[in-house]
């Protein structure tokens, strides 16, 4: 069978979201919307110290409060192992296992009651006494255990010290980034319901299959006995990639009470219980020739981590391969602090690392007297430094060129502080981004039934990125069906296994599995179509037949053929299904490096020198993400991530009280995220070609919005004012 | 002793039996099954729970249900009854003015009120008067475009648009 040509109305172009109507009507069921008969509610009690132990915990008053069904503390909590390691690192430590306290806000008890109001009121009655120990909260504090390169992710090539000693120009600076909290608007919720030894969970997760595996392991159940539903998630931004303690507590609470239990985190609990981007301190050393060619690049980071959890945060990874440089030394160290366990948040590691690397490049450009965009162009990496292989696709130079043209980079006066308009100082800044490649094994299943429509599914999650929509488009294209004749379903652990929605990896991983399933299903139909009495395609070979409009027909005579429904009817079948498996390509076979997506970021800032107002007037991101399945939705993702970058640059800082380790701003009133009035013109353009290593041709979009945005803004602030700001977020007082 | 409150919700009479401290948000979601209205902070800081009270936008998490006796509440479920689609809802889909969709009902209720307030005269005005509704997916530019689009329809069609 020949390839079905993509119908231009289905692919690339901006099809509206297939689940849009349910969202604008408020009908999309988020985990917090799930209810059961006899549903009980849980409220958590959190530690009010950051280090020490619980010396006494008194629950009697809470147990006797109206409506209370159970109070669970470390004294009566079942003993649980730690969950199994996953594709993206270790599981969080299981909750309520002993009297030890490692951070402010750690769960010390849960109250289950008939109503949320009763549970919350009774939670206030749990009396906890502590033995307080000295906490460590500062990345510079030597009392905190320093873990040197704990993940073995450090890398060296060449001789950095030698190259720095002989470089014509050298540059060195330190940078820091504050902790940032994910803060999806949807409160993370787990609804747990047992029926005998079978557990159903409705969970705020980005990885349905992992919740099933982890909970099954913790409770000693076969995986089939745990069913996880997550059709919709009210935002996660990485927080839904791990099975956090509250989900485990909800399952235990339901088991103990014999009732379905809903556990919805409060906004303050969203700051301490589901991870967040850890603070970093970084040092970058660069050596270059006068031509701008880099000869040495050293990038070291120290990253905050909790006392007992782990969190792989690849801050300096991007510096290994972002630029052509013969001598490179990168390393991520961690310091253990009495802080809530960090976790992934939008482009983990790259968000912090790109700020330091791209700020340093900008600083070097001024030292060289060279246009910062030109400096990046001169250090374009022709091959992938990890593998030494040529890129499977890399349109980074197009990102620079198209971006410069679209942004009007030529209008930039290179002199610092030279551009003004009335009282506004104007600055232009640029940053480059080479993200990580990420694709893992994934499964899907496609079915066409007697009515001629298709049902394609996988346990994957649509976290708002548009997975449901683009996979519907992809399936429709592959099966030669209209969009309305394809239903793509996901978010159910009984469906074929899928990796997480995260790391810009799902669309390719899942897309390849869907591609395989749909091609295989087409093949099965073709076999049947040429067989049996009455087949209009009898004798045709696969080369003679194409699929379109829900029909298999002769390529040279579209009138000769039959519909999927007719094929099934003629063979007396109700439906036909095929399984698809997507596996990552093997560079050893292709001879090409697995290419990540690339981007260039351009920023214009305006600073009112008299009033101290800093406005991000314009942001442009030019993206090479391979094939774009739906331009409208891909654009939304980049715009959203870019605005998240405005938050990282200007507003967001999770503040730990230096005395107690309590988060001092754990509300939306105090922790500022961008609002509509903070956002100026946010532009996006796509360049490049479909990546040849997979049949789908995608490289991932989601993570390209945020990283690099803060660097482009900080670089623009320097251009406008001559003030180099090396710590995030940029505060107004730093501008004077 | 229970407090009994009689109100109208989405143009239908409703009675609530309350202990007292229940917010309008919890009463809508837990007692009336109107789960389209979302809880994002329960502190009046995110706008996800925005509903119309007598036609004006309010934060239902900061409104006690017991205060609503004799009042008219409109939630996202009441915008376009009988399976219809309100022009603001249609514009949100057309302009992809959301991603995860969680803050969306609150954004839409706020946008409907904003148009009624006559605050959609310019992008700057829309941005300013929609800034009480947080969107962490940051669909803000598309939200502004959607509202601008409907404001344009209103300007050109007047009352015919049904907004």
From TrEMBL, chain A:
Record GO terms (molecular function): iron ion binding; oxidoreductase activity
Keywords, alphabetical: Molybdenum, Oxidoreductase
Listed InterPro entries: Ald_Oxase/Xan_DH_a/b (IPR000674), Ald_Oxase/Xan_DH_a/b_sf (IPR036856), Ald_Oxase/xanthine_DH-like (IPR016208), AldOxase/xan_DH_MoCoBD1 (IPR008274), AldOxase/xan_DH_MoCoBD2 (IPR046867), AldOxase/xan_DH_Mopterin-bd_sf (IPR037165)
Gene3D superfamilies referenced in this protein's UniProt entry, alphabetically: Aldehyde oxidase/xanthine dehydrogenase, a/b hammerhead, Aldehyde oxidase/xanthine dehydrogenase, molybdopterin binding domain
Entry superkingdom: Bacteria
Protein name according to UniProt: Xanthine dehydrogenase family protein molybdopterin-binding subunit
SUPFAM superfamilies linked: CO dehydrogenase molybdoprotein N-domain-like, Molybdenum cofactor-binding domain
Residues forming coiled coils: none
Domain Aldehyde oxidase/xanthine dehydrogenase a/b hammerhead: residue ranges: 25-134
Lineage: Bacteria, Bacillati, Actinomycetota, Actinomycetes, Kitasatosporales
Species of the source: Streptomyces antnestii
């Amino acid at each position: 069978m020949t390839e079905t040509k993509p119908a231009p109305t289905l692919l690339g172009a901006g099809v509206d979201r297939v689940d849009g109507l349910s969202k604008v009507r408020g009908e999309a069921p988020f985990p917090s919307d799930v209810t059961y008969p006899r549903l009980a509610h849980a409220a958590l009690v959190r530690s009010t110290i950051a280090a020490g132990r619980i010396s006494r915990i008194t629950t009697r008053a809470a147990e006797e409060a109206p409506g209370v069904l159970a109070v669970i503390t470390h004294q009566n909590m079942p003993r649980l192992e730690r969950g199994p390691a996953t594709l993206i690192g270790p599981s969080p430590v299981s909750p309520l296992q002993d009297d030890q306290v490692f951070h402010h806000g750690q769960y010390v008890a849960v109250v289950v009651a008939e109503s949320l109001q009763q549970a919350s009121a009774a939670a206030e009655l749990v009396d906890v006494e502590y033995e307080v120990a000295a906490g460590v909260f500062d990345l510079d504090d030597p009392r905190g255990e320093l873990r040197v390169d704990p993940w073995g992710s450090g890398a060296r090539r060449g001789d950095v010290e030698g190259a720095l000693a002989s470089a014509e120009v050298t540059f060195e600076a330190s940078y820091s980034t504050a902790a940032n909290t994910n803060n999806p608007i949807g409160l993370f919720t787990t609804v747990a319901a047992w029926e005998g030894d079978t557990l159903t969970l409705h969970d705020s997760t980005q990885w349905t299959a992992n919740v099933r595996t982890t909970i099954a392991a913790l409770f000693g159940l076969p995986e089939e006995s745990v069913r996880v539903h997550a059709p919709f998630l009210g935002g996660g931004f990485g927080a839904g990639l791990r099975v956090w303690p509250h989900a485990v507590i909800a399952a235990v609470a339901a088991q103990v009470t014999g009732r379905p239990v809903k556990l919805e985190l409060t906004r303050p609990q969203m700051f301490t219980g589901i991870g967040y981007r850890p603070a970093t301190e970084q040092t970058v050393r660069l050596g270059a020739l006068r031509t701008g060619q880099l000869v040495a690049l050293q990038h070291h980071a120290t990253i905050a981590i909790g006392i007992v959890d782990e969190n792989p945060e690849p801050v300096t990874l991007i510096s290994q391969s972002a630029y052509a440089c013969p001598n490179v030394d990168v390393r991520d160290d961690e310091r253990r602090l009495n802080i809530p366990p960090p976790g992934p948040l939008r482009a983990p590691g790259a968000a912090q690392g790109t700020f330091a690397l791209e700020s340093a490049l900008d600083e070097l450009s001024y030292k060289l007297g060279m246009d910062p965009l030109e400096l990046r162009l001169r250090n374009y990496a022709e091959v992938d430094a990890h593998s030494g292989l040529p890129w499977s696709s890399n349109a980074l130079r197009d990102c620079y060129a198209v971006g410069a043209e679209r942004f009007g980079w030529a209008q930039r006066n290179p002199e610092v502080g030279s551009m003004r308009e009335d009282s506004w100082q104007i600055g232009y800044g640029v940053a480059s981004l080479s993200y990580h490649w990420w694709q893992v094994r994934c499964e899907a299943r496609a079915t066409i039934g007697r009515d001629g429509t298709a049902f394609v599914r996988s346990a994957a999650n649509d976290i708002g990125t548009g997975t449901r929509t683009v996979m519907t488009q992809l399936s429709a294209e592959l099966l030669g069906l209209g969009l309305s004749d394809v239903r793509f379903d996901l978010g159910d652990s009984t469906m074929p296994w899928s990796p997480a929605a995260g790391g810009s990896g799902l669309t390719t991983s899942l897309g390849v599995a869907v591609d395989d399933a749909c091609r295989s299903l087409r093949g099965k139909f073709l076999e049947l179509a040429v067989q049996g009495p009455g087949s209009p395609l009898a004798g045709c070979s696969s080369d003679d037949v194409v699929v379109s409009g829900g029909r298999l027909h002769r390529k040279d005579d579209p009138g000769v053929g039959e519909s999927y429904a007719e094929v099934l009817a003629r063979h007396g079948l109700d439906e036909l299904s095929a399984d698809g498996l997507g596996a990552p390509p093997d560079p050893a076979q292709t001879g090409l490096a697995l290419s990540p997506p690339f981007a260039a970021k351009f920023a214009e800032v305006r600073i009112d020198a008299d009033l101290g107002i800093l406005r991000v007037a314009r942001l442009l991101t030019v993206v090479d993400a391979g094939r774009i399945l739906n331009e409208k939705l891909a654009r939304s993702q980049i715009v959203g991530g870019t605005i998240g970058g405005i938050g990282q640059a200007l507003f967001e800082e999770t503040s730990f009280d230096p005395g107690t380790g309590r988060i001092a701003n754990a509300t939306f009133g105090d922790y500022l995220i961008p609002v509509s009035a903070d956002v100026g013109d946010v532009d996006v353009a796509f360049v490049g070609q479909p990546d040849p290593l997979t049949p789908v041709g995608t490289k991932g979009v989601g993570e390209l919005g945020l990283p690099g945005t803060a660097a482009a803004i900080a670089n623009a602030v320097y251009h406008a004012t001559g003030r180099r700001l090396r710590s995030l977020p940029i505060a107004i007082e730093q501008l004077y | 002793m229970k407090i009994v409150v009689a109100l109208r919700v989405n143009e239908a009479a409703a009675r609530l039996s309350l202990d007292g401290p229940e917010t309008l948000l919890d009463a809508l979601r837990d007692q009336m099954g109107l789960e389209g209205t979302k809880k994002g902070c329960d502190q009046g800081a995110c706008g996800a729970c925005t509903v119309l009270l007598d036609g004006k936008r309010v934060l239902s998490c900061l409104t006690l249900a017991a205060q609503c006796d004799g009042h008219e509440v409109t939630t996202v479920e009441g915008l376009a009854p009988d399976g219809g689609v309100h022009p603001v809802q249609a514009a949100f889909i057309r302009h992809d003015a959301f991603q995860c969709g969680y803050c969306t009902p609150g954004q839409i209720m706020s946008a409907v009120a904003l148009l009624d307030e006559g605050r959609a005269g310019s992008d700057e005005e829309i941005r300013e008067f929609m800034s009480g509704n947080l969107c962490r997916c940051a669909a803000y530019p598309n939200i502004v475009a959607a509202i601008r689009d409907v404001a344009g329809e209103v300007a050109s069609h007047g009352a015919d648009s049904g907004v």
